[in-house]
What we know:
The protein is α+β, with helices and mostly antiparallel strands. It is 26% helix and 26% strand. It has helices at residues 3-22, 27-34, 38-46, 53-63, 67-71, and strands at residues 86-87, 93-96, 105-111, 124-131, 134-138, 141-145, 150-154, 159-163, 169-176, 193-194, 203-204. Strand 5 and strand 6 form a beta hairpin. The longest helix has 20 residues, at 3-22.
Amino acid sequence: MDTELQRTLDAIGPRLRALRRYRGLTLQALAAATGLSVSTLSRLESGGRRPTLDLLIPLARAHRVALDQLVDPPATGDPRVHLTPLRRGQGSVLVPLTRYPGRVQVFKHVLAPREPRLVSHEGYEWLYVLAGELRLVLGDRACTLRPGEVAEFDTREPHWFGPADAHPVEILHLYGPRGDQAVVRTRSSAVGHEGSDGTDGRSATGS
Length: 207
């Protein structure tokens, strides 16, 4: 086998183990999420089983990362990220700003108008509005964020965010496993709310 290919394959196991442990998942929990057996996952992480597409695809889905983030060897030398925009739906564009699984995934996101649909999942998110107005819904509460404002919330709570009007909104979007929380220095004033107290203290106005 080609030496470079072997090095790439050898690096996958430790990367899978580091990603799973950082996200706080046991082998049993990951097995339930992927449909793979605990023994298969353990052998993959230890290098006892060669990684194949039918094994890596469900793992990439479970960790919510691109497949090439599990396979490519870490880049050396040039620290610059080569941006690759991804089109999501009618008029929405997602630009990943980080390359590999790690503490926090960062995206530049242009969201086109869309119908609200609440979702929930493990993790923690931060949204910083660059241009336009963003409507954020958390459970039965909602608020509108304008350029320079930031919100953070636990994604286990049902949520949705998108343009507050008929125009696209541009945001900086950070996602991390549950327990990762950004430190944002803010003024004491709160985000403008609609209805009740908006995000229940988990949103702040950027300075």
